[in-house]
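We modelled the chain as a single entity of 170 amino acids. Its sequence is:
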Amino acid sequence: MARDIGWLNSLPPDQAEQELLTCCASRRWAQKVAASRPYPDAASATAAAVAAVCELSWPEVEEALSAHPRIGDRAKAELSEQEAAWSRGEQSGAASADAAVRAELTAGNLAYEERFGHVFLIRATGRSAEEILAELRRRLDNSVPDERIKVQSELADITRLRVRKLLGDG
């Protein structure tokens, strides 16, 4: 069956949740988006998905973060083949960086995790390694509350892109 809105709408709830978890690893998020079906079109499903990310509590955001590898790292082994492929594609700008920039990203990732206690999350799609590194450095100066807001916004952007991919619309 083609992956489109009809496909998503027709899945049993547990299967819909499993498919949606490839877009955002928060169980509550996947349950909410699956329970809100049927959607009239992909745009409505995407809008609902983004709205649901914005409603997550911080622990639920942290759950979603657990599925994201560090910028420049390989996707985690426990991810589905689809999630791993998406992650590689999203981080292609960082993966093709020269050794010096990759080393700076590694050091920056560690400094970020030490400061904030979680992985640095950014919508890497369409960004070069140098752009990502500059944003990482800038965000190291954020307060914890400001950074949590930024992380949730980046998670919403990533989720938007992935839901569109899931539905064959991106």
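As a brief sanity check on the tokenised model: The two ends are 18 Å apart (CA to CA). The chain has one domain: 5-166.
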